[in-house]
């Protein structure tokens, strides 16, 4: 599809343009695309910014924009919480190395509603305002390896570090090394374990 598009649209610079720059670029090929696809990175962006650009790029009547949202960016799934099992495994790994629990049932944080959380009504109204139509908004439940959630936590380098440093017996040891041992044990515990994650799939079309 990309090769065919490159042959039909004689604007080579477009293929070196970042998504963010598309919001400020005025010479993008208009009314040219049958499909525009985007992964879950849309949850970091705003339909108020993206829909006007998409509306210009898609072919009238036959152009579609398909994208997904993380469950926490949609009001019907934002409170989906299936992390208790992983939290229990994390506590088990800490216990194995004689550290106190990191998670407890009494200190679970309740997140406040964020402005970035979408609703079907918001999507419909925003789409209509920019000349496109919400065709579908479907929630699918997927089985995901539990290691996915662990890797997501580990994207924050400081994760678990403060907890380890809070206890006296860690002060004379390398906390990073201790964390590595705990993570290794945790990976052993969650091997072949899966959890459920909702994914919101959205399709809008050019009017």
Task: Detail the topology: elements first, then pairings.
Layout (H helix, E strand, L loop, with lengths): L1 H7 L10 H4 L12 E4 L8 H11 L6 E7 L13 H13 L23 H10 L2 E14 H9 L6 H5 L9 H16 L3 E13 L1
Helix pairs in contact: 4-8
Protein name: Methyltransferase type 11 domain-containing protein
Organism: Rotaria socialis
InterPro entries: SAM-dependent_MTases_sf (IPR029063)
Give me the oligomer status.
single chain
What would you call the structural class?
alpha+beta
Number of domains: 1
**Biggest β-sheet, characterized?**
4 strands, mixed
Q: What is the percent of helical residues?
A: 25-40%
Silhouette: elongated
The termini sit apart by 23 Å
How would you describe what is shown here?
With 207 residues, the chain is an alpha+beta fold. It has one domain (31-206). 36% of the residues lie in helices and 18% in strands. It has 8 helices and 4 strands; from the N terminus they run ααβαβααβαααβ. The chain has helices at 2-8, 19-22, 47-57, 84-96, 120-129, 146-154, 161-165, 175-190, and strands at residues 35-38, 64-70, 132-145, 194-206. Strands 1-2-4-3 form a 4-stranded mixed β-sheet. Helix 3 links the parallel strand 1 (35-38) and strand 2 (64-70). The two termini are 23 Å apart. Mean pLDDT is 84; it is low at 1-6. This is Methyltransferase type 11 domain-containing protein. It comes from Rotaria socialis.
Concise description?
The protein is α+β, with helices and mostly antiparallel strands and 207 residues long.
């Amino acid at each position: 599809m990309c090769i065919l598009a490159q042959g039909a649209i004689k604007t080579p610079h477009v293929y070196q343009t970042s998504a963010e720059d598309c919001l400020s670029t005025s010479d993008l090929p208009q009314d040219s695309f049958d499909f525009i696809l985007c992964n879950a990175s849309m949850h970091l962006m705003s339909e108020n910014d993206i829909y006007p650009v998409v509306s210009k790029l898609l072919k009238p009547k036959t152009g579609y924009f398909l994208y997904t949202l993380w469950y926490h960016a949609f009001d019907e799934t934002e409170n989906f919480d299936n992390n208790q099992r992983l939290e229990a495994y994390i506590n088990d790994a800490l216990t194995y190395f004689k550290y106190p629990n990191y998670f407890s049932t009494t200190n679970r944080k309740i997140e406040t509603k964020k402005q970035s959380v979408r609703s079907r009504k918001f999507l419909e109204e925003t789409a209509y305002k920019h000349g496109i139509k919400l065709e579908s908004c479907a929630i699918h439940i997927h089985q995901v390896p539990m290691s996915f959630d662990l890797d997501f936590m580990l994207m924050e380098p400081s994760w678990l570090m403060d907890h380890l440093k809070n206890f006296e017996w860690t002060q004379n040891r390398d906390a990073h090394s201790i964390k590595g041992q705990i993570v290794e044990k945790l990976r052993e515990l969650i091997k072949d374990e899966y959890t459920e994650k909702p994914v919101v799939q959205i399709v809008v079309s050019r009017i």
